[in-house]
């Protein structure tokens, strides 16, 4: 198998031009592929997206589902066009549970199992020339990169919102550290919290208490 490592999105078309490929399958690529790239292959390109589109278009859909306290997520395979994640849907599957006490490896395992189930069916549909179903734009939203202040806890916010903020970082935010909070005048990284009474440090949020069950000393970056 050849390994191609183009340095830019524009370089993808040049790298693929000589292969006379039938189909591009994309997963986890943050670049917007140009029309030139999409026209490089005979059939076009399909993308594996880890949400139930049109919810959470963008690069980190699972993180937004966790941040918003969604109880479950899903996987969608869709045709790619000139915009991010808005091409016609070939196949999708929901019902992937997002546990409150989130275990990153378990969630990724279920997502990967869903992808393994959906992708062969999507490729067969693509090869057969299926157009797919248009997305409902009335339900569409976009989940971009988290804002810089997301790494800091604001105790005036609600307990549920802060709890989900901690869950996002526990799930993993591509090397970004946090969330950072002041506890008794000292900076700490919050690693795990609870919304019901638990062993740990109780803090008051804007709408009630939260319990910090795991934390570590921290030196946050300058704001």
Descriptive keywords:
single chain, 223 residues, alpha+beta, Rossmann fold, Methionyl-tRNA Fmet Formyltransferase, Chain A, domain 2, 2 domains, 4-stranded mixed beta sheet, 5 helices, 8 strands, elongated
Written account of the structure:
There is one protein chain. The chain has 223 residues and is of the alpha+beta class. The chain folds into two domains: 10-139, 3-Layer(aba) Sandwich (Rossmann fold), CATH 3.40.50; 148-217, Formyl transferase, C-terminal domain (Methionyl-tRNA Fmet Formyltransferase, Chain A, domain 2), CATH 3.10.25.10. The chain has helices spanning 10-16, 35-38, 61-67, 104-127, 159-171, and strands at 23-27, 44-49, 72-79, 89-97, 180-183, 186-194, 201-204, 209-217. It has a four-stranded mixed β-sheet with strand order 1-2-3-4. Strands 5-6-8-7 form a four-stranded antiparallel β-sheet. Helix 2 links the parallel strand 1 (23-27) and strand 2. The protein is elongated, with a radius of gyration of 20 Å. The model has no long low-confidence stretch (mean pLDDT 93).
């Amino acid at each position: 198998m050849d390994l191609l490592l183009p340095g830019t999105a524009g370089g993808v078309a040049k790298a693929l031009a000589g292969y006379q490929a039938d189909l591009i399958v994309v997963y986890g690529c943050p670049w917007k592929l140009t029309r030139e790239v999409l026209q490089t292959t005979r059939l076009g390109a399909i993308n594996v997206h880890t949400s139930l589109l049109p919810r959470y278009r963008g690069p980190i859909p699972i993180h937004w589902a966790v941040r918003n306290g969604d109880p479950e997520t899903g996987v969608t395979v869709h045709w790619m066009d000139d915009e991010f994640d808005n091409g016609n849907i070939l196949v999708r599957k929901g019902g992937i549970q997002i546990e409150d006490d989130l275990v990153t490896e378990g969630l990724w395992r279920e997502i990967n199992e869903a992808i393994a189930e959906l992708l062969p069916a999507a490729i067969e549909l693509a090869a057969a020339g299926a157009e797919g179903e248009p997305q409902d734009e009335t339900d569409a939203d976009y989940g971009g990169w988290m804002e810089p202040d997301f790494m800091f806890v604001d105790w005036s916010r609600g307990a549920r919102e802060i709890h989900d903020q901690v869950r996002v970082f526990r799930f993993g935010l591509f090397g970004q550290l946090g969330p950072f909070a002041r506890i008794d005048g000292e900076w700490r990284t919050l690693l795990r919290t609870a919304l019901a009474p638990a062993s740990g440090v109780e803090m008051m949020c804007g709408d009630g208490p939260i319990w910090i069950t795991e934390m570590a000393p921290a030196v946050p970056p300058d704001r």
